[in-house]
Amino acid sequence: MDEEIAFDRLKLTGVIGFNGKVQNGFLVHPDGQHVIFCLGSNVVVENINTRQQFFLHGHTNNVVCIDIDKSGSFIASGQVTYMGYKATIIVWSYEKKEKYAEFVLHKVKIQALGFSPNSSFLASLGGQDDGSLVIWSIPRREAICGSPAQPQSAGVTLTLACANVSEKTFITAGENTVRVWNLDLENRKIRPTDCNLGQIKRTIRSLSVSYNDEVFFAGTTTGDVLTISMRYHLLQVVAPEKNGFSMGVTTLKTLGESMLLVGAGDGVLQELCYTVRKDSKHVFPTLIKTNKMKKLLGNVTAISLRGEGHQFFVTTDKCHLYRFNYSDFNHELVDTCHNAAVNDIKFPYNCSELFATCAYQDIRVFNKTKQHEVLRIKYT
Questions:
Q1: Which residues contact 175 (CB under 8 A, 6 or more apart)?
Q2: 308: which residues sit within 8 A by CB, 6+ positions away?
Q3: Bridge partners for 329 per DSSP
Q4: 375/365 Cα distance (integer angstroms)
Q5: Buried b (16+ CB within 10 A) or exposed e, 99-129
Q6: Are 28 and 8 in contact (CB under 8 A)?
Q7: Where is it found, in Gene Ontology cellular component terms (predicted)?
Q8: How far is CA 4 from the centre of its chain?
Q9: Measuring CA to CA, how many Å separate 238 from each of 40, 106, 231?
């Protein structure tokens, strides 16, 4: 009879890099001193200055979406799982660095998550195999209500956003569908209003709401940005009129009262300016490009503001992390890692401080103690 051999689970002490392929998967905490990102089944909290890391364990498969509330008290993370099983949402207490609540209702995948402005509610969007929008009560740690996210005539719903002022307003969008939802808390119902886009048909992958909830912006796979009235649910502007963003608009972030940062599939980061000109009878909204533009390596997957936006971070699917200064739009590459599977790892003879890794098209050397890249060799 074989003896049972007891063993301890290996403890994760540090990670180098991040998963740049997760849409909006890199967030700056409201305290301005920490960043939050997902890597595998873990959620990582890292100090920007000291690089000290803390890991939130609890998911059983890859984390595919995260969000943080405006107060910085809660982090929400959603995972993907196997066909036929339900995917888990975990709400974490940021202060205690532990699990606050666990929600299991959606099938297979959590597509997107969003906190209401005062953190009373969490909205969750299921993936293609689920197709539902669910509203959760954070104080009560329970589901309030749910509904199919799209009408039967539309395709898959791909993205979710919460209002910046209204506690009970949410937005979903995807393949030929844009909906504004209002929560009826007394009757435990969430009621949709379909937005009127006229003859325009678009697949929307990203959303961002203005600071006062007057309008919201929708980025499309065809490379334009739609400006839609939140109150009247009507399309106002389609921009740019010519020379849209190549490979589609992948992420959006409102900045201040009138600026919008746009990330595109070809690596372009562009600033747009939203203005409204009024006369006695008419309103003329416009959305135009400014002279602030940079070209990055890879598909832009996340834009996260630090503080009021004087500084912000941008990630790409090539696993490059850039830090921008808004005033002059100068940027620097602050972190990078392999963007494909690591095939091998080697330590030099009689040296434990350095190690080399190889993956698709590159070899890298890392410092184990400082946890940063020392050398990068590209090959094709």
A1: 150, 154, 155, 156, 157, 158, 203
A2: 256
A3: none
A4: 5
A5: ebbebebbbbbbbbbbbbbebbbbbbbbbee
A6: no
A7: axoneme; motile cilium
A8: 44
A9: 37, 34, 18
Comparing CA positions, the residue from 217, 215, 192, 185 lying closest to residue 204 is 217
**Is residue 1's pLDDT more than 60?**
no
Q: What is 26-343's CATH topology?
A: Methylamine Dehydrogenase; Chain H (2.130.10)
Strand 283-295 and strand 268-278: the pairing is: antiparallel
Q: Locate the domains of the chain by residue range.
A: 26-343, 344-380
pLDDT digit string (tens) for 133-184? Answer: 999 999 999 999 999 999 888 899 999 999 999 999 999 999 999 999 999 9
Q: How many helices (H) and strands (E) does the chain have?
A: 0, 32
* CA distances in angstroms from 376 to 336, 339, 361, listed in the order given: 10, 13, 11
Coil, strand or helix: which one is 81? Answer: coil
One-letter amino acid at 167 equals E
| CA neighbours closer than 13 Å in the CB half-sphere of residue 22 | 28
Identify the bridge partners of residue 155 per DSSP, sorted by sequence position. none
Tokens standing for residue 336? 């990078």
Q: Which two tokens stand for residue 86?
A: 């339900």
